[in-house]
Amino acid sequence: MKMFTKIALATAAAALATSAMAQPKPEAFVKERKAAFTLLAWYFGPLAAVAKGEKPFNKDEAVRATSMLVPLSKMPWEGFAPGTDKVGNTEAKAEVWSNNAKFKELGGKLETEMAKLAAFANAGDADGFKKQFGAVGGTCKSCHDDFKNK
Amino acid sequence: MTKPSTELISAPVWDIFVRCFHWSLVVLFAAAVITGEIGGNAIAWHMRCGYAILTLVTFRLIWGFVGGEYARFASFLTSPGKTIAFAKNMMGKGHDYVVGHNPPGGWMVLALLLTLATQATLGLFTNDEIATTGPLAQYVSEATSVRLTGIHHIIGKVLLALVGLHVAAVLFHLFVKKENLIRAMFSGNKSLPADLAREAQGARKASTTLGFAVFVLVIALVAVIVNWSVWFK
C-alpha cells in the first residue's frame, strides 16, 4: 500500500470514528429513556392481569415478555445523562441528577427484580411469578415517588 | 378545664349507620393509605378499599339528608360566625356542649366527606404508569388520566392533613376538655347536660329500613360504575 493511501485511509477512519463518537443531542437522551420506559410499560402492563388472577399464567407468554423486559430494564439509565434534566417535556425530577446515587441504586434494583421475574417465568413458577410481579411494580413505584413528576 | 354546672346525662346521639360508617371508614382509609404507599400487588387492595370508601361516603352524603337527626347536614352545618365563636370559646376556658357535631366539627365532616368522595372518584380514572389503571381510565385520554393521577396524589396529602386535624380536635376534647367523643362514636351515646340530653332523647330517630335500602342501592350503584367496562362494553 502506498504511503498516500495509508494516510488517506487513516484520516478517513479517524473522521468516521470522531463522528460516530460525537455526543448525541440532549433531546436524543430524553427520547432514549422515554422509549425504554414506554417499552417497559408495554411488555410489563399486560402481565398485571396474570398477577391479579384475571388471566391464567402462561409460561410461554411470561418467558416471551420477560425475555424482552430484562434487557429493557437496563436501558433507561443511559438516557439520564448529565445536562438532560430540563430538556423537552421530561418528567424527570432534578433529584435524578442531584441525588444520582439513590437513583442509580433504584435503577439497579429494577434490573435485579426484573431478572428474578424472568427466573420465575423460566421455571414456570406461577405463584412466584405473581408475587415477583408485585415486587417489580413496587420497585417502579419507589423510584417514581422520588424521581418522577406526576 | 371548666366543670359543667350540671350533671351530665347519657343520651343517644349517633345512629347505628353513622357509627358503622365512621369506624369502617377509619379502617378502610388506613388500609387505602398503606396499600397505596406499598404499591406493587397491594394496589389491587388499594382499589378495593377505594370502591368501599366510595360506597360508604356516597351513603353518608345521602344519609346526611334522610338519616337520624344528628346525622343530617341541616342539624350541624351552621353559619361561619357561630363556627368561629364556638372555636374561640373552646380554645379558651369555655366548654359549650353540643348534641351532635359542634360547628367546626360539622364543617370538618363535610370537608372530609367531599374530599373523600372526590378522591375515590378520581381514583376510578387513574393510571399509575406502571401496570394499574382505574376502572374508568379507558374513557378518558391517557394524558388526562395521568393528570388526574397527579391530583389523586395531592388530594391524598390533603386528606391526611384533614384527618390529622380531625383527630387532633377529638384528642383536644379528650385531654383538654375531658369530653370523650371517641367512646360516643362507639356507643352512640354522648354525655350531655340535662336540657341537651332531653333534646337528644326527643330527636328524630333513624329509620333502619331506609338506611339498609339506601345502603344496598349505593352498593349497586358503585358496583355498576366499577364494572362498567366489563358489563356494558
Entry summary:
Chain A is mainly alpha-helical. In chain A, 71% of the residues lie in helices and 0% in strands.
Describe the structure.
- The complex is a heterodimer of chains A (150) and B (233).
- Chain A has 150 residues and is an all-alpha fold.
- The longest helix of chain A is centred in the C-terminal third of the chain and has 24 residues, at 100-123.
- Chain A has 7 helices and no strands.
- Helix content of chain A is 71%, strand content 0%.
- With 233 residues, chain B is mainly alpha-helical.
- Helices cover 67% and strands 4% of the residues of chain B.
- Chain B has helices at residues 16-38, 43-66, 73-76, 80-91, 103-123, 142-175, 181-187, 194-202, 208-226, 228-231, and strands at residues 8-12, 189-193.
- Chain B has a two-stranded antiparallel sheet with strand order 1-2.
- In chain B, helix 1 runs antiparallel to helix 2 (43-66), helix 2 runs antiparallel to helix 9 (208-226) and helix 5 runs antiparallel to helix 6 (142-175).
- The longest helix of chain B is centred in the C-terminal third of the chain and has 34 residues, at 142-175.
- The radius of gyration of chain B is 20 Å and the shape is globular.
- At the A-B interface, helix 7 of A face helix 6 of B.
Structural Rg of chain A: 20 Å
Structural class assignment of chain B: mainly alpha
The overall average pLDDT of chain B, rounded, is 95
How helix-rich are the residues of chain B, as a percent range?
Answer: 55-70%
Overall outline of chain B: globular
**Largest beta-sheet details of chain B:** 2 strands, antiparallel
E-strand count of chain A? 0
Strand line-up in the sheet with most strands of chain B: 1-2
Helical content of chain A (DSSP H or I, runs of 4+)? over 70%
Structural class of chain A: mainly alpha
The pair of chains with the biggest contact is: A-B, 20 and 16 residues
What proportion of the residues of chain A form beta strands (DSSP E)? under 5%
Shape of chain A: extended
Which whole number gives the mean pLDDT of chain A?
A: 91
How many DSSP-defined strands of chain B? 2
